[in-house]
Amino acid sequence: MPARLFLAAIATSFVLATAAQADELRDLCPDRPGKGTATCTVDAGHFQIESEVFSAAYQRRSGVTTDSYAVGTSVVKFGVTDNWDIEAIVAPYAAVRTHNGNNGRTQSIDGVGDFYLQTKVNILGNDDSAFTLAVNPWVKLPTARIGIGNGAVETALVVPMGYDLGDGWSLGSSPEIDVLKNAANSGRHLGIVDLVGVNRAIGGGVTLGAELWGAANFDATGTVRQYSFDLDAAWQPESDGNVQYDVGVNRGLNGNTPAWQAYIGITRRF
After folding, report:
1. What is the pTM of this model?
2. Which of 114, 144, 147, 236 has the smallest count of CB within 10 Å of its CB?
């Protein structure tokens, strides 16, 4: 049902929106790579698919090793107006493998991931302004098996910000507040997430990025904090302004965070 509602919204919006001509499109501006959220939206009447072709993460803590993988996790976006788009995140395949070195037990779970519905509204500077600001609320619908997801409806509000530093440099931040299910019961608690990211366009359509990311989950059983340092690279071919390829690697900075995560992805605008 959520997928049907999303498709119906897209169809209705498509009738109302006027598609922009190819030569009027703004520069391609996906959220990926990295954990941050871009402030820009998809041009009116256009679709954009941002796909994480493959990702893998590794964590070892107290003798327990956890490997997780995902294939094809994608954000499907549609521009309703030039400063408002609607988005859905689908995760067709995810797998989690846990090996307990203390007792030799191994557990594997795989299946679809959770389904997300979200929207983004650019408040300031969707074109060429130095400072940009947007709001990006989302809701998670529990379609994943327990072990991949937690079986709960959860929601959040992200307020991405960006600043053009000039000479190919840019600075971004994506403060976020979450409403999450308690691990031990059906109650709810808050979580906060933020990062500081720096990007540098080096020419030839290549952009390099670095982020310092942190999250605090204020669960009733105790606060869980995570930190990582992330590096990424993106390439937009000069011959095609509607596609981007990217890679990235994230290094966990504490025991609650996966020690390593790597991914490869592609974005395509239609």
Report:
1. 0.87
2. 147
Q: How far from the centroid of its chain's Cα atoms is residue 156's Cα? A: 13
Count of Cβ atoms closer than 10 Å to residue 270 Cβ = 9
* Chain segment 191-233, per-residue pLDDT in tens: 999 999 999 999 999 999 999 999 999 999 999 999 999 999 9
Between the alpha carbon of residue 10 and those of residues 16, 119, 135, 159, 260, the distances in Å are 10, 12, 20, 23, 37
Give the chain as a DSSP string.
Answer: -HHHHHHHHHHHHHHHSPPPPGGGPPPP--S-SSS---S--PPBT-EEEEEEEEEEEEEEETTEEEEEEEEEEEEEEEEEETTEEEEEEE-SEEEEEEEETTTTEEEEEEE---EEEEEEEEEE-SSS-SEEEEEEEEEEE--SPBTTB-S--EEEEE--EEEEEETTEEEEE--EEEEEE-SSSS-EEEEEEEEEEEEEEEETTEEEEEEEEEEEEEETTEEEEEEEEEEEEEE--TT-TTEEEEEEEEEE-STTS-SEEEEEEEEEE-
Please name the residues in contact with 3: beta carbons below 8 A apart, sequence gap of 6 or more. 88, 90, 115
Distance separating alpha carbons of residues 96 and 101, to the nearest angstrom:
16
